[in-house]
Write a structure and sequence with these properties.
- The protein folds into two domains: 28 residues; 157 residues, Alpha-Beta Barrel (Multidrug-efflux Transporter 1 Regulator Bmrr, Chain A), CATH 3.20.80.
- The protein has four helices and eight strands.
- An eight-stranded antiparallel β-sheet has the order 1-6-8-7-3-4-2-5, with helices on one face.
- By secondary structure, it is α+β, with helices and mostly antiparallel strands.
- It is globular and about 75 Å long.
């Protein structure tokens, strides 16, 4: 009987330890930092996506691959999420995804040759939540904290959660790293 209890205890401890390591590796225990900062300006090279937000990664990769194949570097990829997922059916959610560039880089002619769209994202004061971890944790870790802080601003107090404006997620992923530094940005 003691052998059986020891085996069960060993399995429980092993699974628990493995789970803790996985949670640590994906950044579950890391803090979300909230700040006001000037975000932008950027030139966005993007394509539109209609459908579930968790399925945008293939479209981001298409843009990143085009950038790489044309001798450029996509140091920051992004998702600009235009609809609130609690109010719009999943198959109708709109987003724009791709790569961000500083306007001063003078890439206008190169980007015009791409099969993707471009637009300017103006620099202005925004509320920014920064988290270093797996992008899959963003809805669980970042959005609740961002909303809690955003609603405290005087011009937002009477806005229900449904009025949270479009959200820009910027993914900074250094080469070879599994985790991303994610900046989630909303207008004030």
């Amino acid at each position: 009987m003691n052998y059986f209890k020891g085996t069960i205890l060993g399995i429980v401890l092993g699974v628990s330890s493995f789970g803790a390591v996985v949670f640590w590796k994906v950044g579950y225990f890391k803090k979300v930092e909230i700040s006001e900062s000037i975000v932008g300006p950027y030139t966005m090279l993007y394509q539109e996506h209609i459908g579930a937000y968790h399925k945008v990664s293939a479209k981001i990769l298409e843009v990143e691959n085009w950038v790489k194949n044309n001798g450029l570097k996509c140091k920051k990829s992004f998702g600009l999420y235009l609809d609130h997922p609690d109010l719009v059916p999943e198959d109708k959610l709109r987003s724009e995804v791709g790569c961000l560039f500083k306007p001063a880089m003078g890439l206008g002619d190169t980007l015009k040759k791409s099969p993707f769209k471009t637009k300017n994202y103006k620099g202005k004061l925004r509320l920014q939540a920064t988290f270093t971890g797996s992008p899959a944790l963003t809805p669980i870790k970042v959005y609740p904290k961002l909303y809690k802080d955003w609603i405290q601003y005087p011009n937002q107090r009477d806005n229900p959660k449904e009025h949270l404006p479009e959200i820009l997620e910027i993914y900074h992923s250094p080469d070879g790293e599994a985790l991303s530094k994610i900046s989630v940005i909303v207008e004030l």
